[in-house]
Each structure stands twice: as C-alpha cells, then as structure tokens.
Amino acid sequence: MTAVRCRWLGALLGVGALTGCGVNPPQIPSTNFQISIPVADDRTTVRDLADERAGFLKIDDEGLLAVDFTADFNHREEVGDRLRVAPVSAALAVPIGSADGAIAKTEALVFADDRIQIAHAVIAEGGLTLKATNQTAIPLQIELILDDVKRPDGTPHAFLIDALASGESMVVPFELAVSEFIPQSTIEMRISYRVKGEFEETSATDKLLLEAETEDLLLSRIEGVLDEVVLSVSPIVRAVNFPSGLDRIAFSSVALEVGLTSGVGFRSRIDLHIEGTNSYGERDSLMISEVFQRGDPDHPVSLALSLASAELTEFLNLLPTEVAVAPTVRIGDGESAE
Predict the structure, then answer these.
(1) C-beta separation of 18 from 26 below 8 A
(2) CA end-to-end span of the chain
(3) Which of 266, 264, 327 is closest to 23 using CA atoms?
(4) Are residues 107 and 185 in the same domain?
(5) Is 331 exposed, middle or buried (0-12, 13-18, 19+ CB in 10 A)?
C-alpha cells in the first residue's frame, strides 16, 4: 500500500479580543490548516504517479508519495470595536430650594449590557457629556467629577463651573480615551457633583438640572467577567486551484490540524464552519468547535487542534474549488474573572 500525504496549510484568520491582561486591540485567533492523506492505489507505480504530476506529487524522504499542495487563507480582522458599551443617559434634578449649605451627592449611570462586568479596563475610544442647567434665581458654582474614570496620571476627570448664571446652561464634554475605568460597581459609572450658592435666596421649587450621556465606549485591557460575548466574522471565501489530475485519486483517510494563535485574555470558544464547493456545484461542509484557554495579548499563545474523521475525507474528495470559512468566537464563560 502506498501512502500519500497532503499538506493543506493556510493561515485562516487572526483574533485578539479584549483581554483580562489587555489587548492592543483585541484580535480574533489565527488558524492554520494541515491535512495529511494516506492513499492506496495498486493500478500504477509510485514513480509513475510522481513523474506524471511532478508539479504536486513528490516522493518524500520516507519513500512515500506526497501530495504537496498549499492553499493560503491568511486573514486578519480587528474585532475590538465589538467590545463597546452602548450609550446611556440620565437626567438628574437636584433640589436647591430646600438645601441647607453646600450640596454634595453621587449618582450612577447604569450600563444596559450586563454581559461585560468590568473590574478594570482602559477606555480606548469614547467620551461623556454633562449638561448643567441652572433653574434657580441665583448663580451656582458646580463641580462635576467622574469618580470611576482616571486620567493617565491617576487623577479623576473633573470640571469646575465657577458661576452658572440663573437660567443658563453649560455643556461640559469629557474626552475619556486612554483613561482607566475602575468602577465600584461592575456595570455602573459614578458621577459626583458639588453645588454651592446663596441658597437662602432660592424658592422651594428651584433646582439644578444635570443631564449626562455617554458615547460608545470602546474598552480594551478588560479585567472582569465576560458572559459569552459573541464575535461573528464575515465569511472568508477563497478560490482553491487543485492541481489537475487529483480527480483520479481517492483519498482513503484525512487528518486535519488547526493551528490557533490567541491573544484573548478570557477563556473562549471558536466555531469554524467550513463549506466547500467544487467545479460541478457540489457542496459539503464541516463544523469545528474548540474551547481555548486565555492568551496574552503581548505574548500570544499558540495551540494545535488535531482532528481526524471520515467527514474530512469526504470533504477533501469533493475537491472543492471554492472554500468559505465562517468563524464565530465566543469570549468568556460568564463565571471566570480574568
């Protein structure tokens, strides 16, 4: 029996995602395929096969006939923008007329998506806007503080409105890019305010209106708990030019090896749906699912996933001329803090 080995090697895609230790930015894992195929054929000699198809058939160092063919699926996609906290807003009416001395209070903006429970993160993009409207008859001094958001120097974001006149409004934008987000509650952002003025001159109905609204907040270097954040990637389609002559060879068995390079800082799972179509319009598909442990964005971890099955043999015997690979990455298990 003559054994034929076929190596089908292709870098499929790259991933990095958010990370417990952080990502710069998170990226989807990259994958490589390698297929080894033993073949038996007693109707011809190994030398005949190799000589007639020297472009892709070779006799290796062990004297075995090898199908030497490479299809490159090198693909990389940035997916950090999938890890955004959707905008939230709130309006806070602060009673002034009944105040006795300076007013100091803390409120919280609650994020709608609780799949991302944050202990620590870096805000890669985004900001927050606070609008103060003085609905009293006196000028007000207002200090606004974002307790959970620190500048690179470690100080909290703050802004002082020295004197907001009666009936006037002021919009205060906070640019939060490269700021550290260290929330007291994993799904909230605290806002503190301090108000001073001659309150004895106000009426019982006087108030200060504070309106807060966040932009999309893109997070990186996340530590906390992710509850299966799903990152779907558009299918990667490649034309595969199998060498002519392979239609006369039937593969008896196939082994598939998937190489995965992960910089994702959370325990995750990758699902690969592979569909092949040959020149006759015939189709076949494979599904590969694997769980992989957390990686390190600065030093990605390489893993090798080996599979062997009759499905792979049937798939390759189809001799697909077009292969589409649709990856889905599910980050976090909803339990592990990383």
Answers:
(1) yes
(2) 52
(3) 264
(4) yes
(5) buried
The structure tokens listed for 96 are: 């002034």
Q: How far apart are CA 316 and CA 306, in angstroms?
A: 16
What are the tens digits of pLDDT across the range 17-50? Answer: 333 333 444 554 544 544 444 444 455 565 665 6
Q: Is residue 227 part of a domain?
A: no
Q: Is 140 helix (H, G, I), strand (E, B) or coil?
A: strand
Is pTM beyond 0.70 here? no
Looking up tokens 């325990």 gives: 267
Per residue in 262-281, pLDDT (tens digit) is 777 777 788 888 898 988 89
Q: How far apart are CA 6 and CA 323, in angstroms?
A: 17
Residue 305, domain extent: 4-80+233-331
Residue 105 DSSP one-character state: E
Tell me, yes or no, whether 223 lies in a domain.
Answer: no
Burial class (CB in 10 A: 0-12, 13-18, 19+), 63: exposed
Strand order in the sheet with 57-59: 4-7, 65-68, 57-59
The token pair at 108 is 């919280």
Q: How many CB atoms lie within 10 A of CB 135?
A: 16
